[in-house]
Amino acid sequence: MTNPYDLVRYPNWPVSETHPASLNTFASLYGRPAAQLSACRVLEIGCGEGVNLMSMAVGAPKSEFVGIDLAEAPVEMGRTMARAAGLANVTLLARDLCEDTSDLGEFDYIIAHGVYAWVPAVVQRALMQVAAERLRPDGLFFVSYNALPGCRLRQALRDLMLSRAQGVSDPIERLAIAREALARFAQTWSADDPFQNALIGEARDILERPRARAIPRRTGRDLCAAARERSGRRGSRRRPHLSLRRKTKPQF
Asked: Could you tell me the fold of the domain covering 4-147+217-243?
């Protein structure tokens, strides 16, 4: 089965909350030691094109940054960008999270941003298992997730979009149909009604995001320029969770 993320480009940008310097600051506030950015190993689960890791790697040439993602196309695009930028300390791998990751070694920081809430339970368990096994004793694990009831409105709109695109196999076409349906429904809602106004706000947030595009074949220079253009963009309502406890094996 083809991975949709190999066909549709998912936006990548630096996420400041996941930066080792930020995580180190949080650890210091809790009285915990943590590795310095200048000499650490960082693993990002669900790295996509690796733009987030590259933004860290530029300022820490002696540190090592490893990203894994199930989709091969964005990983290959990220490798092209890393080579073009001369970032020898960035390694991007197309890997299944449910497979053995012991060859990756241990890390001072493990990041999973925008992954946990969107994958099946078996992958969620695998993600936590990888974090438990690959995190160093004094390491830090950052995982973001969507929490209820705050994300219920977004979930409702997602259900609406899925129902309208049901039966359409092409991912680009599915997204176009879903966006059109959401825009049409949003026009019928009244800003005078508190609930409908909240739905309008969520719909606007979704519709203002970049439209889905097929993954292009571009040069490393083009990809680097695109990454710089996106680097200032931010925006996430995911709830971050920072684990400051020492490494323990999770119980399932």
From this structure: Rossmann fold (3.40.50)
Beta strand spans in 113-223 (E): 135-145
Residue 241 has pLDDT above 80, yes or no: no
Return phi, psi of residue 109, to 5°. Answer: -135, 135
Torsions phi, psi for 107 (to 5 deg): -135, 150
Return d(Cα 160, Cα 181) in angstroms, integer.
Answer: 8
**Mean pLDDT on 185-202:** 93
pLDDT of residue 199: 92
From its phi and psi, is residue 50 left (phi > 0), alpha (psi between -120 and 50) or beta? left
Token pair of 101 as six digits: 């990751």
pLDDT of 211 = 66
Structural domain boundaries in the chain: 4-147+217-243, 152-207
Kind of pairing between the strands at 135-145 and 239-243: antiparallel
Determine the residue type at 243. Answer: S
Q: Which band of pLDDT confidence, cut at 50, 70 and 90, is reported for residue 169?
A: confident
What does pTM read for this prediction?
0.76
Whether 230 contacts 26, CB under 8 Å: no
Compute the distance between CA of residue 212 and CA of residue 203 in angstroms, rounded to an integer. Answer: 16
Coil, strand, or helix at residue 137? strand
CB-facing half-sphere around the CA of 52: CA atoms within 13 A: 26
Nearest to 228 by CA among 54, 6, 46: 54
- How crowded is residue 163: how many other Cβ atoms within 10 Å of its Cβ? 10
